[in-house]
């Protein structure tokens, strides 16, 4: 049995950040990752490859939209092999960089699957090697999440999860996407831009559950220009035949498809490390309970990222990782954000942070909503950004900014301004009196604040 100071289980954004931060604070760190390279789902099969493909899709759509300004291009010629190589090249460059950062910090990277055998011991198994037993002083669990599967669907290679969709094996003539959340909509726009006829079946009453409905109008308008959307629709059966996948969906019958993407959410992978052997119980939903300083029921074992409650987002995992690493190194910090941003990197983008209007109503919190339409934005019009909106959720008694949402071009970049305002306890007056460059999309948030204050002159 080998002896270890701090072990981090999982090499995704949360795991490698925790390992790097602890090493920077002087700890001897062992990082255990099941795959042959670092980066986890986000870098290898999620955030980075999807945004790479989305950027290509946006270029295709922008080229077509330029016709309205008098500039016309011919139909795009799609080289799927070159596109895959481009995507894989971006991923390889980033994962290679991570390996270099780990080496520079003298982190011991071990490939294999880790499972606890006691509160201070674990076993690591790797293909072609005998199990390795390790004893540790402290550990951080960062094993992430995996796609939820639908058990009633047949086992067929034409039925994909997000990993299969990003592999880009081909562009189907007809693609059904089950799930109208962020992943489903992003993939819908990628495949639509590449030439597929896309149909979305969402079980709920709206797209992107969690976002305020008022933010979705610009995106819905864009989707209606080529994608078929069915809300409140459950796919009850799929029959796999040689000529395609035949789908039954309640009263609506979308028909035959060449491929199906299942994108109905993700579930935590905490159980795979056998936490019960370390004296850690999972919740009914499979999450590992933690305190604000990210400790589990065993104070020397921490958990971060998707295996813990909260939004399954890489940036949440990264911030939790730094807290866990610093607490493990003796610092007194905790994870207590006022706002965690969510972004759909669709065209247009949808982003929100802090309290939503929907949450406020559900919790009986009195709020005032102030909005500014991008139809009155000089920058949005001159850039051909299309429809959009900037919204603030405010405390009517103090004017303090409690939440914000944007829909439109670069909404994911702009939401950081609102996030900082919420964390700083800023008011509508603070935002309105901050001089924004003109013309910019960022000033639409200031205009929303002015709308609340009654000082807006741009409408």
UniProtKB/TrEMBL annotation:
Residues of the active site: 438 (proton acceptor)
A Pfam family this chain is assigned to: Pyr_redox_dim
Cross-referenced Gene3D superfamilies: 3.30.390.30, FAD/NAD(P)-binding domain (3.50.50.60)
Cofactor note: Binds 1 FAD per subunit.
One BP term from GO: 2-oxoglutarate metabolic process
Keywords: Disulfide bond, FAD, Flavoprotein, NAD, Nucleotide-binding, Oxidoreductase, Redox-active center
GO molecular function annotations of the record: dihydrolipoyl dehydrogenase (NADH) activity; flavin adenine dinucleotide binding
Cofactor(s) for this UniProt protein: FAD
Catalytic activity: N(6)-[(R)-dihydrolipoyl]-L-lysyl-[protein] + NAD(+) = N(6)-[(R)-lipoyl]-L-lysyl-[protein] + NADH + H(+)
UniProt-listed InterPro entries: Class-I_Pyr_Nuc-Dis_Oxidored, FAD/NAD-bd_sf, FAD/NAD-binding_dom, FAD/NAD-linked_Rdtase_dimer_sf, Lipoamide_DH, Pyr_nuc-diS_OxRdtase, Pyr_nucl-diS_OxRdtase_dimer, Pyr_OxRdtase_I_AS
Highest taxon in the source lineage: Bacteria
Note, other: The active site is a redox-active disulfide bond.
UniProt protein name: Dihydrolipoyl dehydrogenase
Organism: Falsigemmobacter faecalis
């Amino acid at each position: 049995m080998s002896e270890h100071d701090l072990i981090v289980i999982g090499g995704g954004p949360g795991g490698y950040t925790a390992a790097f931060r602890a090493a920077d604070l002087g700890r001897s760190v062992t990082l255990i990752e099941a795959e042959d390279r670092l980066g986890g789902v986000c870098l290898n099969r999620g955030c980075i490859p999807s945004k790479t493909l989305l950027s290509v899709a946006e270029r295709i759509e922008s080229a077509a939209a330029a016709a309205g300004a008098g500039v016309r291009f011919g139909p795009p010629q799609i080289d799927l092999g070159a596109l895959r190589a481009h995507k894989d090249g971006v991923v390889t460059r980033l994962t290679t960089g991570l390996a270099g950062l780990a080496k520079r910090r003298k982190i011991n990277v071990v490939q294999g699957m880790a499972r606890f055998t006691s509160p201070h011991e674990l076993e690591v198994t790797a293909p072609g090697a005998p199990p390795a037993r390790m004893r540790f002083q402290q550990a951080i669990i960062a094993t992430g999440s995996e796609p939820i599967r639908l058990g009633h669907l047949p086992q067929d290679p034409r039925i994909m999860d997000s990993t299969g969709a990003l592999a880009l094996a081909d562009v189907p003539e007809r693609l059904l996407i089950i799930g109208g959340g962020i992943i489903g909509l992003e993939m819908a726009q990628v495949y639509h831009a590449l030439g597929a006829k896309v149909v979305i079946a969402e079980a709920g009453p709206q797209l992107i559950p969690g976002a305020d409905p008022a933010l979705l109008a610009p995106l819905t308008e864009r989707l209606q220009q080529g994608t078929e959307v069915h809300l409140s629709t459950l796919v009850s059966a799929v029959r796999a035949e040689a000529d395609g996948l035949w789908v039954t969906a309640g009263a609506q019958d979308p028909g035959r498809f060449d491929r199906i993407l299942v994108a109905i959410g993700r579930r935590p992978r905490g159980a795979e490390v056998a936490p019960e052997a370390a004296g850690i119980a999972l919740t009914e939903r499979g999450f590992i309970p933690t305190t604000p300083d990210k400790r589990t029921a065993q104070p020397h074992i921490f958990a971060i990222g998707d295996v813990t409650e909260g939004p399954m987002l890489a940036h949440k995992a990264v911030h939790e990782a730094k807290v866990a690493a610093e607490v493990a190194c003796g610092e007194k910090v905790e994870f207590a954000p006022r706002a965690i941003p969510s972004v759909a990197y669709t065209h247009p983008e949808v982003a929100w942070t802090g309290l939503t209007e929907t949450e406020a109503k559900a919790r009986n919190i009195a709020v005032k909503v102030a909005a500014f339409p991008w139809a009155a934005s000089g920058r949005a019009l001159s850039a051909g950004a299309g429809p959009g909106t900037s919204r603030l959720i405010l405390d009517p008694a103090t004017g303090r900014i409690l939440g914000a949402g944007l829909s439109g071009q670069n909404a994911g970049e702009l939401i950081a301004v609102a996030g900082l305002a919420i964390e700083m306890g800023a008011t509508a007056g603070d935002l309105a009196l901050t001089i924004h460059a003109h013309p910019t999309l960022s000033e639409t948030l200031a205009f929303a604040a002015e709308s609340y204050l009654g000082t807006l002159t741009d409408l």
